[in-house]
Design brief:
CATH architecture of the largest domain: Beta Barrel
Oligomer: single chain
Structural class: mainly beta
Strand content: 25-35%
Number of domains: 2
Radius of gyration: 19 Å
Helix content: under 10%
Number of strands: 12
CATH class of the largest domain: Mainly Beta
Number of helices: 3
Low-confidence stretches: none
Strand order of the largest sheet: 1-2-7-6-3-8
Order of helices and strands: EEEEEEEEHEHHEEE
Distance between the termini: 50 Å
Mean pLDDT: 91
Shape: globular
CATH topology of the largest domain: Elongation Factor Tu (Ef-tu), domain 3
């Protein structure tokens, strides 16, 4: 049992900052690993940016990240929330969810560690990230398969991966993706993100609306389509952001 009195605030240092392909909250996969092509870099902050602190971590394919939902800090927590996984129409306790709006706005993600670089500081290159640009990292730990993987574990509210939606690309979008240099697996990333159907639940039947989300240095334009009983998402174009 903790000796800390209820309500005592405990501070932690920020050991790094995330530079991500996701520039805004809208469209970020709701769990890590759903978009394996989602790449990010963790820039380690001083005085933790010494390779000595990461010796041996390169032996791990995956790592745990503890981070702050920094864009949710201004929201007041509530005992019950409506998870998107349940259609947004069922309330459950906040501690039964991974809602970013919680008493301590701390997130936990498993991501693939691609490589560690040590030039001009320390950078961790990761994939499968569900992290927003500028996310503060509190801690990094190795993923240990024999204890961190629990084959018999159950979560009856989320007992299977979410269903995915077909994604198609307009001719304009295909040409723009082919012409975009310096973005690995851009088409794959777009498909993995949009097949999760990031639309708010209350807009499920809005076929007339064109959506936009910031991905890398683009504003990704797309729309929801229904042909007969078949639902899909069409990628319309990639509009370069004015930087």
């Amino acid at each position: 049992m903790s000796n800390n009195p209820t309500g005592e605030k405990i501070s932690f240092p920020v050991i790094g900052i995330v530079y991500s392909c996701f520039k805004e909250k809208f469209g970020i996969p709701r769990q890590p690993g759903l978009a394996s092509a989602a790449q990010a870099v963790i820039e380690i902050a001083a005085p933790y940016n010494t390779l000595d602190a990461f010796e041996g971590l390169g032996d791990c394919s995956h790592i745990w990240l503890q981070f702050v939902f920094h864009k949710s800090l201004h929201h007041a927590w509530r005992p019950k929330v409506r998870p998107p996984r349940l259609g947004g129409n069922r309330s459950v306790g906040v501690f039964a969810t991974r809602s970013p709006v919680r008493p301590s706005a701390i997130g936990l993600s498993v991501v693939r560690l691609e490589r560690i670089e040590g030039k001009n500081g320390v950078q961790l290159y990761i994939s499968g990230a569900d992290l927003l640009e500028g996310t503060p990292i509190l801690d990094i730990k190795p993923y240990v398969p024999y204890v961190d993987s629990v084959p018999e574990a159950l979560n009856r509210m989320a007992d299977a991966p979410p269903s995915v939606m077909a994604v198609r690309f307009s001719g304009i979008a295909k040409a723009q993706i082919d012409a975009a240099n310096g973005y690995d697996n851009l088409a794959v990333l777009i498909e993995q993100v949009l097949e999760q159907d990031p639309r708010p639940q209350y807009q499920k039947t809005d076929e007339a609306r064109t959506y936009g989300m910031k991905l890398y240095e683009f504003n990704l334009k797309w729309r929801y389509c229904v042909e007969g009983s078949v639902e899909s998402i069409e990628v319309l174009e990639l509009v370069p952001l004015l930087i």
